[in-house]
Amino acid sequence: GAVVSQHPSWVICKSGTSVKIECRSLDFQATTMFWYRQFPKQSLMLMATSNEGSKATYEQGVEKDKFLINHASLTLSTLTVTSAHPEDSSFYICSAGGGRAANEQYFGPGTRLTVT
Amino acid sequence: DAKTTQPPSMDCAEGRAANLPCNHSTISGNEYVYWYRQIHSQGPQYIIHGLKNNETNEMASLIITEDRKSSTLILPHATLRDTAVYYCIVRVSQGAQKLVFGQGTRLTINP
User: Fold this and answer.
1) Rounded distance, CA B80 to CA B70, Å?
2) Contact at CB, B46 and A104, closer than 8 angstroms
């Protein structure tokens, strides 16, 4: 299967600061990337869908000015959590599809964000 | 996408077959049944998918009823490493589609 990486795997930041999470498709070109958030003991919730070269589409209830998504290339999408607060602490997971993975999605390993 | 219903938890003895059910009674004719699993603190992992025929790969088998309203994922010889949350999702296969995750089934393999 195709490989998707995330960086960093975990991060701790202070309240009010911004954090950037990277999602990379390592061996295929991902025309579409998805960002999910998962709170403890809960399921994955889709935050937004990003297509290379265009603006992301956010799910209802997700603040686009707080969670900035950039999909500038076919192998990289970034999620920036701006002015992070403790309630933003969560497990953030990206997935990628497109190219030779046209009908599938491959998930990254996730990024654990803790805001103190 | 159609909704799915899964039992919240199941237990299985190591070495035995684990059979995980999923109901998807409102599935449309062009929707596939996909199974993913998530081991603790990792991203979801694709397992298998099917439309109407039974499918088998190196990880599992998928049995879909003739009316397509339910399916069963079978792990033939469960190991401790199969302990995870298993998600059954129905979706149109074509194109990179967003996935709607339900609560899944927490499968615990006991030694």
Assistant:
1) 26
2) yes
